[in-house]
């Protein structure tokens, strides 16, 4: 749907001028021609925009309407509480997941930081607003205008601004961040600040997927990183805006995230029914074999296995027979990548 050109009402007024008997006929026609010329000139230079919407899609209409109750795969009856204990293999030695050197804890980026939009898991190519309340894509596909949710805040209570969005993109494309971000966001050429809550992104070329890529942009606090070097490999917990805070950690061994009761976004549609665990703890193991033994000893709650040989050989014993550990195959209908054997026949 197109926003009207600001002089579109000129065409509607032509009839009235044409029927105004008190105007000379020559003057009336001259005014009509002049107004039509002005109309076409202004429409040529006036940017045409797709109407502001709560989400974007590459393959047709959005499944969910504005202010939807929650994704279909979530439950409004879910009761917040409890603790989920997961595992990871390896270690961690920093608290910034967006830099090159070192290793950050698992899930830190997703639980502490937020992106402009969130992709739904039951649509192939659709995103809905999180930090951005609505978006408008230019008709020529070379820019996108977004409006921040007025409630969006960092965990210290400071409002997220257009300046923070600009800082985030510029930082991720700089040599302060991991090089993969500069490559991933390379065609998002610049961010223009229109107001404290409005930004316009400019694209280097036409690409339908750029709008989806832009939606994945994480946002940082400009003020915080003015006094905390972005690329410093420290164990200081960074300021984010996400639904969890870091409650505590033991370097290289475990980290615990705690649900933030003051999180600004609990009522945003994409978050309804999500993030229900009061605590999420990640325990670290040196290798997969030790991790599996830790799982059998009830060190953590869940393990995912995609190796058929290990599934048949290693997941058996008395605890499985007594159903102390539940072994189950869960079917899904998501698209999967190719799996196979590649032979070097040279």
CATH topology of the largest domain: D-Maltodextrin-Binding Protein, domain 2
Secondary-structure element series: HHEEHEEEEHHEEHHEEEHHH
Average predicted local confidence, pLDDT: 87
Question: Low-confidence parts lasting 5 or more residues at pLDDT below 50?
Answer: 1-27, 39-51
Q: Which SSEs are present, and which pair or pack?
A:
Layout: H1 9-18, H2 25-45, E1 55-57, E2 83-89, H3 108-112, E3 117-119, E4 126-129, E5 132-137, E6 143-148, H4 162-172, H5 179-184, E7 188-195, E8 198-203, H6 210-215, H7 222-227, E9 244-250, E10 254-259, E11 279-285, H8 288-296, H9 308-313, H10 318-321
Helix pairs in contact: 1-2
Describe the structure.
- The structure is a single chain.
- This protein is α+β, with helices and mostly antiparallel strands.
- The protein has three domains: 9-45, no CATH class; 55-286, 3-Layer(aba) Sandwich (D-Maltodextrin-Binding Protein, domain 2); 287-330, no CATH class.
- The chain has helices spanning 9-18, 25-45, 108-112, 162-172, 179-184, 210-215, 222-227, 288-296, 308-313, 318-321, and strands at 55-57, 83-89, 117-119, 126-129, 132-137, 143-148, 188-195, 198-203, 244-250, 254-259, 279-285.
- A four-stranded mixed sheet has the order 2-11-10-9. It has a four-stranded antiparallel sheet with strand order 5-6-8-7. Strands 1-4-3 form a three-stranded antiparallel sheet.
- It is globular, with a radius of gyration of 27 Å.
């Amino acid at each position: 749907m197109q926003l009207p050109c600001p002089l579109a009402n000129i065409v509607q007024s032509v009839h009235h001028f044409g029927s105004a008997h008190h105007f000379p006929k020559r003057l009336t026609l001259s005014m009509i021609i002049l107004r039509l010329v002005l109309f076409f000139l202004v429409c040529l230079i006036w940017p045409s925009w797709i109407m502001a919407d709560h989400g974007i899609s590459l393959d047709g209409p959005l499944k969910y309407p504005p202010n939807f109750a929650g994704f279909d795969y979530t439950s409004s009856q879910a009761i917040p509480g409890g603790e989920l204990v997961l595992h990871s293999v390896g270690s961690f030695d920093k608290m910034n997941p967006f830099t090159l050197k070192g290793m950050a804890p698992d899930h830190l980026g997703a639980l502490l930081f937020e992106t402009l939009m969130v992709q739904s898991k039951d649509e192939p190519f659709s995103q809905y607003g999180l930090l951005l309340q609505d978006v408008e894509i230019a008709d020529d596909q070379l820019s996108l205008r977004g409006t921040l949710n007025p409630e969006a805040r960092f965990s210290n209570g400071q409002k997220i601004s257009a300046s923070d969005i600009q800082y985030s993109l510029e930082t991720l494309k700089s040599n302060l961040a991991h090089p993969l971000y500069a490559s991933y966001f390379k065609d998002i050429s610049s961010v223009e600040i229109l107001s404290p809550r409005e930004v316009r992104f400019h694209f280097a070329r036409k690409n339908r997927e750029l709008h989806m890529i832009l939606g994945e942009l994480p946002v940082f606090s400009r003020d915080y990183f003015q006094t905390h070097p972005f690329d410093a490999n420290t164990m200081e917990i960074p300021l984010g805006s996400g639904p969890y805070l870091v409650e505590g950690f033991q370097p290289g061994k475990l980290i615990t995230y705690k649900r933030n009761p003051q999180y600004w976004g609990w009522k945003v549609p994409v978050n309804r029914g999500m993030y229900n665990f009061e605590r999420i703890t990640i325990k670290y193991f040196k290798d997969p074999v030790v991790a599996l033994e830790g799982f059998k000893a009830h060190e953590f709650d869940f393990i995912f296995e995609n190796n058929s040989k290990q599934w048949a050989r290693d997941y058996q014993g008395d605890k499985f027979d007594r159903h102390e550990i539940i072994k189950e195959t869960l079917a899904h209908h998501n698209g999967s990548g190719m799996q196979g054997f590649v032979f070097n026949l040279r």
